[in-house]
Input
Amino acid sequence: MMREVDFFDLGVAPYRETWALQGAIQKQIIDQKIALRNGETVAERRRDIFLMVEHPHVFTLGKSGDPTHLLRNNAELKELDAEFVKIDRGGDITYHGPGQIVGYPILDLENYFTDIHRYMRSLEEIMIRVCADYGIEAGRIDGMTGTWVGNSKICALGVRCSRWVTMHGFAFNVKTSLNYFDCIVPCGISDKGVTSLEQLLGHPVSMDEVKLKIRHHFEEIFDVHLDELSDLPELQKDSEIFKR
Output
C-alpha cells in the first residue's frame, strides 16, 4: 500500500515558531521510533509530515555557515523589517520571505532509504520537475546543492537529520523579492546568481498553483499520498503562528 504522509500548510508564519514546531514533531517521531524498538505500546502514531509555509523576511545561517556572509548590520536589518537567526541545519546563509514557498518534510528516512545524499537529490528533483511544468529547464551544478537555472539558484536546500528523521528542507523562489539576496552571500557562493519563477517567466504566477505542483511531484518522488490536515494538535490557538 502507498504510504500516507500528513500535509499541513501553515500559510504565513514566523520563522522561529515554525522552527520550534519542526523540532517538536521531529522529537515525537524519534521518541516513537525508540519506543517501538523497545517493544513499547504507542497509543497514537505520529506519521511523517510535510509542512509548507511562507515566512516574513528572515536570514538564516546554518551551523557550518560563515557569519560574515551576512552583509548588513542589526540597524540595517531593522530597516528592512528582517531578522537574523542562527539555526541547526546544514549549509550557509540564505533568505526566506514573502513570495517564497518553503517546504519542511519531516520524514523518517528508514521508511524510504537511509541515504541523506539521495534525499537531497530527491528534493532537487521535485523542483526540477516543477520548473519543467512551466517550460523552464532547471538542473544541478556539480558539487553544489539546490536547483539551478543556468548559473542562478531558484531553490535552496538545507536539512538536519537525527536518527534518520529529517527537518528543515527547501526554499523555492516563486515571486520572491530578489533584492534581499543582496544583503548576503547566498549559500556562501559569491560567483552565482539567484532567480525566481516569475523573473524567468516574465509574468505573475499563482502561489497556490505552484504549491499543488510541488505536492504532486513530492508524491511522485517519494511514492506517497499526502493527506491534508485541517489542523495540527501541536499548535496552540494562541501561538504566534496563528497571528497571521
